[in-house]
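ARCHIVE CARD
Drawer: 12
Card no.: 0347
Subject: one protein chain, sequence and derived structure
Cross-reference: see card 0346
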Amino acid sequence: MSKTTSMTRIGLLAVLLAMVGFSYSLATSLTDDAPDAGVAPRAVGTTIPLDFANPFVAGPGSDRDLGDAVAGSALTRLVRAKGGVPPYTFTAGSLSAFSQNTLKLLTNGILTTIGTGVAKGLPTPFRFSVTVKDCFGSNPHTDTENFRINFVSTTRFRFAKSQLSDGNFFRTYSDTIDVINGHAPYTFAASNITFNPNVGAAIPLTSLEKIGLSLSKDGAIFGVPVPQGLTSNPLNGGVLTFTVTATDSSNAKAANRQGLGNSQTISMNIGANVIIQNTIITTKMTIKANNPGKDSIQWSGIANVNGEAISGLSGLNFNFRVGPYTAPSVVFDTKGNAKSPKGTKTSVVSASVKKGGVASFKDSKESIALGTITGSTIDLAVETRIGDAIIGSEILRFTVKISNSGVTLTYKPGPGSSPGGAGQLSKVHGSDDKGGVGDSWKVSFLARIPTGSRNSASTASLARVRTPPACSRRVALTAPASSRPSPRH
């Protein structure tokens, strides 16, 4: 290993400190699972066990619910996981049944029909097993459970499920609200939003962004759940509920999953958590909106590409969302660049990922409708997807500038700019004696931690890094036992 290593080699920091630059002397260890004597280990991602996040089916049984689908129609559903050390890899059992019926489970958890195929000839309910594997060094955690799709024969435009996959405070979240039938494209909107904590009274919210999430117009829900209430206690999880409407291109509204009414009550469990974890960090972003044809987005950030070669992204997609807006997808070449086809006149997109995970995105000649914006700041969730497995979501606070030609939103890292927490790794230096213990490392980074998630009123003074040989590098930050105060809630 060389004297200097890039951000890719060390991974992004996921247990974050106060908003200033720090440098830490680090010690490496070849034994990832064995804690060092006298130090309380805080390996990133291991505080929440690896588990599937999809809800269980209602009534008897222990299958995970992927909702309803129409036999003979194209199908896309998301298998989701939580805890452990992201990113995750998913594999399906019953592979012969999948290949015979044009269904495929991608390694990123997307269950879809192959090409222009449709789901046909399947029993209902259709049951299959899925195994998820995380990136916990050379000894990854795994979990295997059964999933179920309920194939129905109906022409009614309605919702396919009533419950989203589970989330955790301060962890990246991504799911979709699915409908069946109707005429695409669909437009989704949320109202009557309430967070019901496990302890305490229900808390009404004026928007999903107040709890760290955004709902795009195409039904994706993403962001980083943040604690609610007077104390904003991240150890007090609960259930988020809201009413959602889906309108198709013919202006018809979807009925609920039972085929009644014209809306659906959606629920989402949010678990307690005090460890912040990021896969992709935004370092700068500007949005010009509400001026059709002249709107634009410029974004830069850092992605944990897990030591993968940039050429491995070739042929894979770059996807970007912010608030209600979803940008056109573009495909990477062998050099980590992606852009709209030559001759594109509107919605011109370009993106790149460089060595070390430095990423950028630009979307110009666009029409971005964010609606009426008042006040000096606005919170919006941002989701970046790089290839099959790297998904990063954040909730960011933008400053607002309104003019006759629209609105300009600007995000810059600073106090209060990231309600869900974030971190920016700026420099890593180290030496390797190739023998294991005794290596010396120095890390410089910025970190932004929201109120309620700190384990200390001051910065930690000791850091240890473990560098497993597999798909992730993780940093664990702890204060010495003699100076570590009680957790703040």
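Annotation on reverse: The longest strand covers residues 390-403. The CA atoms of residues 205 and 474 lie 35 Å apart.
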